[in-house]
Write a structure and sequence with these properties.
With 68 residues, the chain is mainly alpha-helical. It contains two helices and no strands. The chain is rod-shaped. The structure holds zinc ion. The site of zinc ion has 8 residues, from loops. Pfam families: YacG.
Amino acid sequence: MPRAKAKCTTCGKPVVQAYRPFCSKRCADVDLSRWLGGSYAIPAVEPPDEWDMAAAIREQDTDPGKLH
Ligand SMILES: [Zn+2]
């Protein structure tokens, strides 16, 4: 039943519950910056489909032909 103690994915020390899956905020930050600056670079932000839909619906609602 006892599970193997999780180890910090950054430095290998025992994980601290508050910072899972890391041992400290420092290690969490290290991993995050590695994530953001590394191979998983995020491209320029594009509006998601939902945004386009909301804009289209708003255009329909303000259609002058519907106001009369
Ligand atoms: Zn660590």
